[in-house]
Fold this protein.
Amino acid sequence: MGKTTYKRLKGSQSFRQRLLLATLSSTPIIIDEIRADDMIPGLLRHEMSLLRLFETVSDDCVVEVNETGTRLKYKPGIIMGGKNLVHSCALTRSMGYYLEPLLVLGLFGKKPLSIRLKGVTDDPKDLSVDTIRNATLHILKRFGVPSEGLDLKIEARGVAPEGGGEVLLTVPNVQSLTAVQWVEEGMVKKIRGWTFSARVSSDFEHSMRFAARGIFNNLLPDVHIFNDHKSGPAAGKSPGYGISLVAETTAGCYISADTAVSCGRTEETGEIDVERRERKPAEDTGVEIASWLLQEIEKGGVVDSTHQGLLFILCALCQQDVSKVRVGTLSNHGVETLRNLKEFLGVTFSFRPDPSTGTVILTCVGSGLINLSRKLS
Amino acid sequence: MAADDLMSSQKSHRMRKSGPTMRKKSEIDKKKRGVADNKQPNPRAFSVRSVVKAKRLKIRAVEKEQRRIHLPTADRTYGEPPPFVVVVQGPPGVGKSLVIKSLVKHFTHQNVPEVRGPITIVQGKKKRIQFVECPNDINGMIDCAKVADLAILLIDGSYGFEMETFEFLNIMQVHGFPKVMGVLTHLDKFKDVKKLRKTKQRLKHRFWTEIYNGAKLFYLSGLIHGKYSQREVLNLSRFISVIKFHPLSWRTSHPYVLADRLEDVTPPEKVQMDKKCDRNITLYGYLRGCNLKKGMKVHIAGVGDYSLAGVTALPDPCPLPSAAKKKGLRDREKLFYAPMSGIGDLLYDKDAVYININDHLVQYSKTDEENGEPANKGRGKDVGEDLVKSLQNTKYSVDEKLEKTFINLFGKKTSASSERKLEADAQSSPEGSDAESSEESQSDDDVDDHEMDVDSNDGKIKEKTELRGGRLRRKAIFKDEVDDSDEDGDDDDDDDEEAEGAESDGNEDEDGEDESVSDSQDSDEDDVEESEDKVLGNISKWKEPLKEKGRKKNPNLMHIVYGASASSATALINENNEISDDEDFFKPKGEHSKNLGGGLDAGHVNSEDCSKFVNYGNLKNWKEKEVCEDIRDRFTTGDWSKAALRNKNSVAGDEGEDDELYGDFEDLETGEKHNDHENMESGTNEDVEAAERRLKKLALRAKFDAQSDKSELEDEDNDNGDGINPRNSEAKEPGFVDKLKEELEIRKQMNLLELNDLDEDTRIEIEGFRTGTYLRLEIHNVPYEMVDFFDPCHPVLIGGIGFGEDSAGYMQARLKKHRWHKKVLKTRDPIIVSIGWRRYQTIPVYAIEDRNGRHRMLKYTPEHMHCLAMFWGPLVPPNTGFVAFQNLSSNQTGFRITATSVVLEYNHQTHIAKKIKLVGHPCKIKKNTAFIKDMFTSDLEIARFEGSSVRTVSGIRGQVKKAGKNMLDNNAQEGIARCTFEDQIKMSDIVFLRAWTPVEVPQFYNPLTTALQPRDKIWTGMKTFRELRSEHNIPIPVNKDSLYKPIERKTKKFNPLVIPKKLQAELPFASKPKNKPARKRPDLDARRAVVMEPEERKAHAVVQHYKLMHKVKVTKKKAKEQEKRKAYEAEKAKKEVISKKRNREGRRERYRTEDKQKKKMKRGQD
């Protein structure tokens, strides 16, 4: 027992999932050659921040990074959870990046998790906090997570360059997750949306709303888009606006699409293309996201392509029962997730394509992970 | 006429209508008809007298009802259960082997020469039992207790209970209590019937107190011809067979294998080179507990943790009679399997396999070998026979072969290679004469003949023939499975087998091979399905091509996602075109789409970690109505029936694609599936509901079955006929539990449905090996001692390790010293714990939780209380019980179990604290501030304690401020603290600082490697302090300050109080000091002479005279009184002596009479 055997991995890909799964399955890992050949080698700022977040949430985890940051040694500890935790995220990625693994991690903690994250709340790369609040949390509930104590409170907005947003995440503990049979997509019965604007005129919001509603007019009358104009300290440090749309179906599935536009100055070299796109008018953004939502609905599946990874992870963490879910076209991230799940938890999925609808039905037997760190009362 | 008269004259029998006989008969009749006797003898006796009392009774009844109910647990064992493990345990010399032998004889009519290792027997149509004899050392007992489903405790009736029994009971209780049955033996030693009865009674009640009231204790009255009497063995076997086993939580969450065979598969060359090299071993046994996945780590009890290098499912060596198809009349059902005991035809030794066939069953002839096609198929010749014949035919003698290699007839890789070497040598010899090839030819012909192997006693040969199902390429399959099992994929092995395969069937083309693979898999699957699920019973032949199709397709996406695996390599070549068909549908549209082509490319290992799927490039113009119409039905505003159709289609997904190709099958399929398990798709709108309903029905049926079983059992339990059993009625069970049970059952059925849809390979990939499968586990790099010191009498337990259970951490447990262990346990004394599958030595620190939540360290465990124990070791989930020992030796007289405990939680850090009291003395006092020395040793230490409160003995409170280095004049002494007090303290005061200091739990964990040493040797680990001291003759260290000694106090001497003159002058007179010093010379008053007048002198003289007279008088009186008293005293003493004497005599007299009376009474009583 004195010598720990590390699982050896390479590259920076699916960093979050690797950390998450390593922690859940208590597998020590070594990741080599992290961006070894890149211009900026090693771990990026948000990745370091994520590591620090893992350290905050868990107890006695060991993180060793070499000087260039190209090699990471991670020995997971015990997930503690706890109240009044604070973590300031790196501003290179938005909160969605941190929240996605944290949601799952919090479920298997010793104590219910309540953490305040500070940083960028919305950006086009990651899930916006609105989407997490209104779609992702519903997916978790499907797996037997109690709805009490599962909440995401958006206390301040913050968009890309400067951030300044603040959210409060509370996640309850579970003993184990229950397997799902989730193949029925149902029909979209309502679409809800949330727009926000921070440090910019609320006209942006209105035009986005108007444009998005215009798209849905052909299909569904029950469309509601709420606006959320922030000013003062609650609006963060940079100007920007964004939209998040969620379609709810009769079978209780939530399909989402979102984006955020930052009107701040361009600073980083790596974000040129993002900045270029942002120049288009707010109406276009609204139309784009609304169309994207319809595209996702067209693809089918019980979750959108963005949530596929999370769905698979949750399925794999269930009790040793058969889970069956239907997703649309497998996304890249989904496929990567499947590989990681096989690697860490030994959970293999079986696939049954359904050509008539263009969807895939995935079946797996959960790994039977139970929350071991909970204290025996 | 006459006859009629005669007949009629005969009186007909008249039934009795009354009387005691009739009453009895009618009662019996009623009972038979099941009519309950409702008539109460006294109807008023049970009427409600007091409402309060009735209410209380009702509450009590409900509470009892609730206590009976347990949270239902999900049963995740699908398919044929593994044999139940019956552990026979008892102190040495109580007759354990004999009981097993008798039972085996009873079940199988087979004599077992000696009991070594588990013996599996078929007990009934649906039940198998594995007998295990528990060895006499505590390690064996622990391992046995962990696997036992039923423990038979043998007790020497003539001697009484022995410690082993209770130790075993306690071990079992901690590791989940399996069923227990006691058996009294040696009862023939009692000559006195009365004494026998009394002993039975006494032992039974003792047994009951230990387990529960009414626990079964069985009596084996004695030996007849060296065996227990048949009747009693029969009864015992009946009791064994009706016992129902309930799941134990640890075992249902961890897979485990009780190995009934161990083989060393290290390449012999390697062993020859270095006898002490690490070995590769294979272990065989039934999988129990839960499903075992391929990448799992295992713990071999007494050896250590290993990852499985390979897992292979073997055909059942001892199948249930229902599962095994009987081929010929001569094929006797195999009712037992005991590879290490030496019964049956094969005997497995450490490095050889001996075949043992009765002479009259074999004819040593070579006639069959001449014609290539032996005509003995119908006769069902034993495989063993063939083997023996081939052995006769070999060019090399057995000894010779043994010298070169160990015989390994059954296609083990290493031996195969060695065999091949021999073969190559003997290439010139005719085919039939070679051992290997003759075997091969035999199997060639048994194309569809895998019943034959059922009879053969060996798992491997069976596996071989079965896998050879249609073709020669047995090795390919074997390789396949091996490859599946170990993901690393040993290249050299593959090469070997490839070569072998090429050798054996060069003429076969790839396609043929592929077919054979799938064929054999199909048959496998069929078997499994048939045996496992009655609902899915007959899958008709026509479905096979469909299945094939479905299976071929499945690896496609799987292949895309999981990358190339060895199993699907050939399939891919065949189906390239099909993949391209699918690609339109299942090609992710992301930028890294080429990433999906195979495994992880080097170029994309650094791809960005982003879950969001963004591809705005090819957005359709959703403003157009036509575009919208495409997805109209996905909205509630669309066509609901179409949407429903979408869902329906989805379920039938895999068949849907084959419409064009297999159109003709489609009708059949749907037609079939109306009454088959997949009728979901055939329904119309409410197919989902229908499926649900069907599932519910299945669940209900299963539940009903379970209940009927249970009620039967209950009837048996309380069959003393108490009429209506109020607890037995299921209707009384609250709805919640019912609902839970139903949900679980539905879930189980759903799982079965889903899993049975998959083909065997995928299923194993997804689910792992099911419980009840006979597995071959290959483990590499095991210390050679395990093989060298292998003792079949000791159980080899291989337990799966769950997530996180192989990493070590601190565990906190609630521990109680066992009440029979004589001593309390000391903190930091190593104990040996048995926890989960493991046994290891660790160093605990005991603690107790204070009222404020602090964990205070205890030096010793409390005598009769639980305490907390914190120790370091491989983590186990909370709620796992464990048992602690200090000494494992068998020749110890006392009770070896020192403590029992349950793990509460685990942590990566400890929170135990102990009290610390720092003592210091003031070295300088300034008003309320004082500088304290001796309390701390350094300024750093002071910094740590800044702000903590201190106190003097007299109770003056204070606070540590800072290190007082600078304050002290030029004295640069470290560790002087400045403290402030609420009042000025004295230099003579002692200052205390009370604090709590964390206690570190030693990170010590030492696994017990009892299997790596001779079994009779006692394992020794770290020694306790006491042992070390006694060994090295070191006395117990004594702190002299802690000793009690008489308190010596010096009398305090105070200096005289000096009041300054000035002050004195100002004082009021009352306060002025008045003790003037004595004068040297008398003062004037004293010195002056007094001259009296003559009258005065006379008066004075008179007074003087009177005074004198009075004085004389008083002295005289005094003398007189004294004389009187003296006389009186003398008188008194005299009297006292006399009375004392008298008293003594009186007492003596009294005692004597009392004694006499007592004796008399005693005599009277007797």
Q: What stands out?
A: Chain B touches chain A through 105 residues (CB under 8 Å).
